[in-house]
Amino acid sequence: MPAHLDPSAAAYYSTQSAFSDPGRYAVKYADLPDDPAQLAAIARNLLIHRLEGDLFSHTIATDRLHDDAETRYVDSILHLLLERDASPLPQHRNVGNRFVGVCRDFALLHCSFLRHAGIPARIRCGFADYFDPQRNEDHVVTEYWNPHHGWRLADPQMADPRLAAGHAIDFDPMNIPRDRFHVAGAAWQAIRTGTADPQIFGHWHPEDPMAGEWFVAQSVRLDLASLNKTEMLLWDIWGTGIDDYREVSEPQRDTYDQAARITSDNVAFDEVRALYAQDDRLRVPDEVWSLAPFNGPVRTALRA
Questions:
Q1: Closest by alpha carbon to 77, among 109, 51, 103?
Q2: Average pLDDT for 155-170
Q3: How confident is the model at residue 3 (pLDDT cuts 50, 70, 90)?
Q4: Domain extent for 200
Q5: How many domains does the structure of the chain reveal?
Q6: Does residue 241 have a pLDDT over 60?
Q7: pLDDT of res. 267
Q8: C-beta neighbour count of 87 within 10 angstroms
């Protein structure tokens, strides 16, 4: 039986956001297919994760780490890509000509391709267990609408067979099981009910490992924004708790309880839109603090 998607949600998620809009580069999308898996493979071949140099036997230039990784809009990503190689987007790129980003960039570009094809899509922030079976790593994937099966999670970063094999992926990256990728709201609820240890959710950078309740709270905030088509960088902070973002107060827990309830696996679209519009503790303002890993903290004005 075909799945049903509310027409307002279908219309909302099949149009571009300020972040996913290719802008003047939309003409480059003319060569793209309309199959989600093929679009994931194309996004994969246009980008390299900043930690994948060894996998591709490639030394990523320092200036690429600084410049590419702080690029937040798809048209800016495409500008850099096409400056380095003006070939059609479906054409395989030499690794040295790819955009250097993180999981969010793979998901956002894939989402941009899907929306261009008229396929409802959004990016989801949460935690994957397929990088380390002992922990749930901070990660971002795509969620797209399949008319026969409903919303499916997809990881375009895993569309390269070498990466999938390296992590022993035993599922289709275009249909991630919900118990292998925990959207932020589901992770928060598991912590609050005592069924999960908060310390297994985080990002274990060698120089600054980050994990725990506060980290999951930040992911809930990012995911709510993404569900409202405001697809932020993963190190952007704003709103409640900004002065001491590694702590969570009891009133803040109540706020995140509400956000998590409507952003878990079954997204309550109308409530997600209403909460974001009404709560300035969660809604992204015109300016945010970007705790940029390479360039340092900076106050950043967003596009109108």
A1: 109
A2: 90
A3: confident
A4: 7-301
A5: 1
A6: no
A7: 97
A8: 15
